[in-house]
């Protein structure tokens, strides 16, 4: 079981690392490194610190091109949670509205230019808004997050490690292939409580707006 403060740091770190690596994000990387260093040893810390080292070593232009090639040009590597559940349908608009209101109840106002189902924003909500409900939100979208993880793994993307770290916060084992993840989408994720106590996260900066 992950302590609440540790889970918040993992969510906040993953939120930063899954954003487009522009200058603002790169400026936050030392803060991310410091917060992760304070975590106890474990799979999530190892995954995030490994990716962080990769990102810090990559030339900025190369890192940016890798991000675009991964998330903007690969349909299966989608960072928008309701895309996995609703696709490009009318239903998705309602899902986005409901999600935006969910954030507002916790005092988080999504920027107008970013959709509220953007995974880094959902992770920021968990870290700085309402940890328990944020983890519930991630669990509600478990199948899509796992399909994203598998797509990144199959593509040989280093971003696989970041999504894998997020999945360690959710109850039950992760599916090992797309067929298992699709069964999860049909049957629903495990419902047992993750049993976390909310603590404030380290201030690593907000999600890209």
Overview of this structure, please?
It is built from eleven helices and no strands. The protein is an all-alpha fold and 209 residues long. It has helices at 4-17, 23-37, 43-57, 60-72, 81-86, 90-105, 119-129, 131-140, 142-154, 160-167, 178-187. Helix 1 (4-17) runs parallel beside helix 3 and helix 7 (119-129) packs antiparallel against helix 8.
- The outline comes out as globular
What's the alpha carbon Rg, rounded to whole Å? 16 Å
Low-confidence segments, ≥5 residues, pLDDT <50? 187-203
Number of helices: 11
Secondary-structure element pattern, one letter each: HHHHHHHHHHH
In short:
The chain has 209 residues and is an all-alpha fold. The protein contains 11 helices and no strands.
Give the arrangement of secondary structure elements.
Layout: H1 4-17, H2 23-37, H3 43-57, H4 60-72, H5 81-86, H6 90-105, H7 119-129, H8 131-140, H9 142-154, H10 160-167, H11 178-187
Helix pairs in contact: 1-2, 1-3, 1-7, 1-10, 2-3, 3-10, 7-8, 9-10, 9-11
Which labels suit this protein?
209 residues, mainly alpha
């Amino acid at each position: 079981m992950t302590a609440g403060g540790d889970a918040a740091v993992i969510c906040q770190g993953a939120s930063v690392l899954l954003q487009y690596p522009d200058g603002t994000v790169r400026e936050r990387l030392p803060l991310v490194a410091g917060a992760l260093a304070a975590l106890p040893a474990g799979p999530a810390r190892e995954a995030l610190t490994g990716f962080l080292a990769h990102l810090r070593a990559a030339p900025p232009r190369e890192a940016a091109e890798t991000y675009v090639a991964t998330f903007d040009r690969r349909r299966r590597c989608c960072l928008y949670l309701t895309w996995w559940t609703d696709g490009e349908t009318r239903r998705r608009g309602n899902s986005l509205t409901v999600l935006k209101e969910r954030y507002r109840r916790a005092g988080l106002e999504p920027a107008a230019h970013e959709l509220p189902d953007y995974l880094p924003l959902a992770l920021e909500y968990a870290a700085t808004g309402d940890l328990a409900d944020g983890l519930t939100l991630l669990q509600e979208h478990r199948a899509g997050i796992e399909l994203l993880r598998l797509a990144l793994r199959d593509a040989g993307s280093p971003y696989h490690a970041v999504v894998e770290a997020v999945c360690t916060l959710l109850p039950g084992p992760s599916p090992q292939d797309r067929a298992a993840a699709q069964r999860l989408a049909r049957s629903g994720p495990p419902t047992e409580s993750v049993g976390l106590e909310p603590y404030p996260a380290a201030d690593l900066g907000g999600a890209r707006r």
